[in-house]
Each structure stands twice: as structure tokens, then as C-alpha cells.
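Q: Predict the assembly, please.
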Amino acid sequence: MGLGAFPMGVAFGVLVVHSGLHWWWASVFSGFIYAGSLEFLFLGLVLAAAPLASVAVTAFLVNFRHVFYALSFPLHRVRGRLGKGYSTFALSDEAYAVTTGEAAQSFSSRRVLWLQGFIHLYWAGGATTGALLGSVIPAQITGLDFAVTALFTVLAIDAFRARRDIPIPLLALACALVGRFAFPGQMLPAAFAIFTAGLLTRYAWTRRERAHA
Amino acid sequence: MPDTGYLIAAVATAVAVTWALRALPFAALAPLRSSPLVAYLNTAMPVGVMVILAVYTLRSFNPHVPDRAWPTALALAFTVAVHLWRRNVLLSILGGTAVHVALASTLFVH
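A: Predicted assembly structure:
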């Protein structure tokens, strides 16, 4: 599953080198920031020499969704300060996705950390490979960035299969479209805020109906 | 070209914000784990988050630019079909990406 991070990393590495930076910046960005969708935006920001405050605000908005990952990620299974430190550092979308299942709640400390370490390595290794290959890959070869779309699409299908509740993905789709067209500059934070509000409303509604029944 | 000092500062900024967002909620949310609302959000959130992120990656999709819209639409249909058929995450991602690269680099080159 985390293998999907590799082609995405390659796409990112190619972009880093094609933007004129040294190849090893791809390793630095992907190894330290380690947040796929932010890194693609980050690259655009630093190339435009954006102020650090803009970098901070963008990182906050794009990665705010990670706040919710604390609800189900099995950090209680991970032992040691160092282990917990790394585990929170490497809590990427992919790491969250592979641990959302019921089974992950009883994974061993070692298993959680190895899983996260491998996904981290796939991403950083992919970015480094892409950066090294970047000068070799002709500019005519385009479209590698679709790997990110394919990844999230496939994860959405699997998450739906785990709990076949049709209204939730439809609500999320509607929120994403509202975010895209009503708040184009702030699509992610807007969509997540409306989606969360929608879930809270639905929860309150079903509780009231149960109380009446 | 941005200088090295600036790039290091920018990386440090992004790391600090990202790590804080990932680590701090464990302290705040841990006591809430037994709440039924949190349990509901926990089961409902993943599919919604993935749908929103998938749409986010397609935000520049524009049907009026057929050279970019067709490869995206066809590769997306291919990815979904292969995934419903084989249920293999890696196969679906690599297959969909290969279709996209092939179409965007050949038939729909702009």
C-alpha cells in the first residue's frame, strides 16, 4: 500500500530538479517535511521566495486534517519516547490510511514503526530517484503527478468498502466541490471545515431521532 | 534561485508546523476516545478525508482544456475500474499513472 508513495515521490523529485534546484533538495524536502501534498505547494512557494509566514500558514491549512488522525492512529501501541516521537513525525496520509482498520489497533509497536519507516523510505527514496533521473527523463514525458490522484481515489474506495455508508462520501464530495468553487484559494480548509460541520450535524440529528424513538 | 539559508529556514518552518499538527492532538484528544461522538467521527472521517483529497488533486481539472482533461478522465476511470476488479492498491495506482503518462505524453500532447 505504501508503495504508492514511490511513484509520487518520483514525480516530486522530477519537479524539484526541473525547477532548477540541486537533486539533494528533493531528499531534504521529502525526508524532513514528509507531507506529500504540502511539498508540491511548498516547492512553488520557495521558488517564489515567499515569506516564512506564508510557508507556515500554508503548512497549517494543508495539514490541518492531520489533527483528526489522532482519533484513530494506534499511537498507544507504540513504545518509547523516541518511537512515539518518530511515529507522530511520520504520521502521513498514507501511514494513517494503512492503520485505520480495526486490525491496526492491536498491531505491535515494531509493526507500526516499520510500516511508517517503509512508507517514509518509499517517499524519500522515490523523490531522490526522481531527482536523479530528472535530468535524464525528457521533458516530453509528463503526467506522473496523477499518482497522487490515483492514490487518494483508491484509498477512498477502500475506506468506503470498510463501511458502506453512502451519505458520507456524497457529503464529502459536495464539500470538496463547494470548497473548489466557492473558496478556490482555500479549498482544503474550507472543504474540511464544512465536512466536519456536516458530520456533527448528522450525528446530532441521528441522536435526536433515537431519543424520540 | 533561492539561497540555502532561506531554504533551510523554510523547511524548518514547514516541519515544525506539520509535526505540531500531527503530535499535539494526541494529548488533547486522548481523553475523548471513549466519547460516542469521537467514535462516530473516527469511523466516518476516513472515507470523507480521502474523497476530499482526491478532488483536491483534481482541482485544476478543466473540461475546456481537452488535452489535459481527457487523460485525467480516462486514467481516473481506468484506476477505479481496475481497483473494483482486482482490489490491488499498487496495481491500480501504477496502472492508472501509466495510462495517464502514456496519454498525456503521446495522444494528448499539447
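The radius of gyration of chain A is 19 Å. Residues 165-213 of chain A form one domain.
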